[in-house]
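for the writeup, i need someone to sanity check this before i put it in the appendix. the sequnce is what the collaborator sent (i think, or maybe the updated version? ugh). structure was predicted straight from it, no edits. if anything looks off just tell me and ill rerun, i have time this weekend
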Amino acid sequence: MATSYYDVAAGLGAAGFAGGLSVAIMNPLDTLKVRYQVATAPGGMRSFAGQILRREGLWRGLWLPGVATNFWGIGVSSVGRVGCYPYVRDGLLNAVGLEKNAGVMFVAGLLAGAVGYLVSSPVYQVKTLAQAEAGLLENGVFATGASVGKAPRYASLVQGLGTLKRDGHLWRGAGALVVRGALLSAGMQVGYDGFKTWAKRRGILEDGPVLHGLAACAGGVGAGICATPADVVMTRYQASSTYRSAVGAAADILRTDGVLAFYRGFTPFVVRLGPVFLISLPLTEQIRRLAGLGYLT
């Protein structure tokens, strides 16, 4: 029994630490995505990024906003979507008596991701709002960005959670986040677990770093395809007080900008997910191996 508890704790810890570290490293792309989604008439992505870099710099404009909160939020969600996933998947396989396939991977990823993102919802909301309000501070108020003339409200995790609690918005957007996180997790696992399973069954690659890296890239593409629409809705809803619900935000996006607007920011989203998964998933595998658990199967 002691070994079983150790296996579970070490596996969940490996997933959480690797997920949090990887997203902290890649925080500039996440910040750019969020700031671009809430900006008004920003023009192209490249020119928008250039404006931020010229006026605010890489560290203050893109890396610092929400980085610590991002670590904790994604760390907690990774415990669900990566750490708990094998247990959920194997439970489903035992229940239905089937071999591992894409359908089971999708459903297991959906369930594991939903739990992970539900638990981390308040923290993740602070991260998103800190990135959305980011800008150059002058005399205690923002001189650039989407919150010009306003004081920071989400400068730290503690301040952000306090602000949300006072406003009665601690769980605002939780439903949209859970949908986004579940879809991201499902797409990621179909790509990652699916590619690993396919390659090993055909003897193309042995289970190891090379296979983990290729599978992580496949996981990033799968996650981006499945989760970008929900990501756009969640960001718009959390960053604006004019919407009463995520459904209302989605309806407004569809009415005002059309269907293609749901994939606004798709490129930076996938570009960010690729490196994050390329760091976090192989790192999770190596931490598991060093802890004596072996690679994910």
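Residues 2-290 form a domain with the Mitochondrial carrier fold fold (CATH 1.50.40.10). The beta strands are 137-138, 141-142.
thx in advance!!
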